[in-house]
Design a protein that fits this description.
10% helix; 2 helices; globular; three-stranded parallel beta sheet; 133 residues
């Protein structure tokens, strides 16, 4: 039930040493999540569990998340899209929910765990290269 906000102001400072962000039952919006990710350039692990207020999780190249290895997104009910196509360093992707997602085609995955609820599943798009070799 904790809310995260205020990451857009000048007071927000980079967390250069932070390597893991694990949020459970936290309320934040898309902008605050994007800003949080951009403030953590050495991030290796991202975990979002039962978070509210997030409609999209999108990692862009300008964020510089070249060390991100593991992403877990579980039961974030407001989520309608996930995009990690620019994160070729990704090795582990765990997802439970019902929205569409994009994964990098050039990543060398060690594990992928995808679980969809029958009632909430929408379209699923996984880069063709993930399963073609």
């Amino acid at each position: 039930g904790i809310g995260v906000s205020g990451l857009q102001g000048r007071a927000a400072r980079p967390c250069a040493a932070l390597e893991a962000v694990l949020l459970h039952s936290v309320r934040l919006d898309d902008r605050d999540l994007a800003r949080m990710l951009a403030l953590c350039p050495r991030l290796r692990v991202l975990g979002l569990c039962s978070c509210t207020g997030i409609s999209r999780v999108v990692v862009m190249a300008v964020m510089g998340l070249t060390s991100l290895r593991s992403v877990t997104i579980v039961d974030c009910t407001c989520l309608i899209g996930v995009d990690f196509t620019v994160v070729s360093s990704l090795r582990s992707f765990r997802y439970s929910g019902g929205c569409f997602f994009y994964l990098p085609g050039d990543a060398l995955f060690a594990d992928i765990d995808i679980r969809f609820g029958v009632k909430t599943s929408r379209n699923v798009l996984i880069c063709q290269k993930v399963f073609s070799e």
